[in-house]
Amino acid sequence: MFLPGLSFVIFGHMSPEPAFSRGEDLRPATGVRVLAEVLRDVGQDPRPLLARCGLPADLRQLGAGVSPSQHMTFIRASLAATGRPDLGLVVGQRHRLPMFGFWGLALATSPNLGSAARIGIQYADLTHTLLRWSFRRGGRLASLAMRPARPLDDLETYLVEADATAVATLLRDLLGRSTVLSEARFAYPAPGWRDAYGEAFACPVVFGAPRHELMVATSMLEAPLPGSDPLTAATAEAECRRLLHRLGPGGGLTTRLRRLLLASGGGLPSQARAADALCVSERTLRRRLGEEGTSFRKVADGVRFELVSGYLRDTSLPLEEIAARTGFSDAANLSHAFRRWTGQTPGGWRQAAHEAGEGD
Q1: d(C-alpha 2, C-alpha 355), whole Å
Q2: Which end of the chain has less Cβ packing within 10 Å, N or C?
Q3: Adjacency order of strands within the sheet including 212-217
């Protein structure tokens, strides 16, 4: 059921559930913990740096997690203390699936790599990433692209390096093989430590690319994963939905609503039920979403489109099954909504998406 050499401890010693903390955008402390371990390995005591960031020396006391500002302050302090500009590459290679609780378990027990990519991105808010990930499938190569989810200033290179290397490491764990990526592309110029990228990614590396992305052969997406287990995968994904729903409200009401809708899978709640779950009145929900430049329908349509387009682009599932998975009564209703969103039929959009990737 589990990947060889990996054990997931789900009860009694997994990371605590994210707590509801008004006004805070707390994320799992995995990145901070791994960075602290790397600091110790290179002979740097992390405790003074943690204290400077308002974090406890014993990271087991973190409880609900850390804020992005604390995480970024700790990264800056660590880069300055070590003088190691390649620290992101080192940290990324220390990440392993069992560190991520139910999120890692859902990936490890997925039927194939394409499904694992969908799950990983859909529930990425359960991890410590400060990047927004997307998955594009089609043609010879599939793309896992990343971009900043917020201004990262001087830390964009570190965070892209750490996350990209972590994903490359997790992909190797998922497939049980040392070579997975076809190419790694980065939008920034080649850094002075470019030679370290070869070891980190084990594939050709391109700098000055249009965007940050990791490329995988499309032929690998349907190959069964060694740890595939349908029952465990379904249970783990259900737990991911529950945990996503319980995440703190950071990022504004739009972000809170989006998390709520994603946590519900395809069966999106009504506006009234969503307002109740978010502890606001319907009137307040409408007003505050309007102040943030959106509406309940726009957010719900965005989530539905994200789910449907992901299935169309990244799987070969028939339209009827996609409709069932995303809360539509039948394929006809899904098609009607999709034409309203894009002006195209789901089949036409799927074909165009696949053709768009053929040049990769």
Answers
A1: 35
A2: N
A3: 131-136, 141-148, 212-217, 181-186, 205-207
The pair phi, psi for residue 299, each rounded to 5°, is -65, -45
Sign (positive or negative) of CA dihedral 99, 100, 105, 107? negative
Structure tokens at 271: 């506006």
What is the C-alpha separation between 257 and 274, in angstroms, rounded? 7
Please list the residues that pair with 141 across neighbouring strands: 217
Alpha-carbon span 263 to 136, nearest angstrom: 22
pLDDT of residue 359: 53
**Tokens matching residue 336:** 């009607």
Q: pLDDT for 77-88, tens place per residue?
A: 999 999 999 999
Give residue 67's pLDDT band: very low, low, confident or very high (50, 70, 90).
Answer: confident
Place of tokens 């201004």: 151
Q: What is the DSSP code string of 180-226?
A: -EEEEEESSPPPTTTHHHHHHHSS-EEES-SSEEEEEEGGGTTSBPT
Tell me the pTM. Answer: 0.71
Statement: residue 336 has pLDDT above 50:
yes
At residue 57's C-alpha, the angle toward residues 55 and 63, to 5°, is 60
CB atoms within 10 A of CB 295: 15
| Block residue for tokens 């682009």 | 313
CB 35 within 8 A of CB 74: yes
CA separation for the pair 1, 124 (Å, rounded): 23
Task: Look over the chain and give the mean of its residue pLDDT values, rounded to a whole number.
Answer: 84
Question: What is the rounded average pLDDT of the residues 219-229?
Answer: 91
pLDDT at 248 over 70: no
pLDDT above 70: residue 358: no
Give the Cα separation of 290 and 273 in Å (integer): 18
Give Cβ neighbours of residue 293 (< 8 Å, ≥ 6 apart): none
CA distance 48 to 226: 42
Give the model confidence (pLDDT) of 155-209 as tens digits.
Answer: 999 999 999 999 999 999 999 988 899 999 999 999 999 999 998 999 999 999 9
Q: Is the Cα torsion angle 62, 68, 73, 78 positive or negative in sign?
A: positive
Pairing verdict, β 141-148 and 131-136: antiparallel
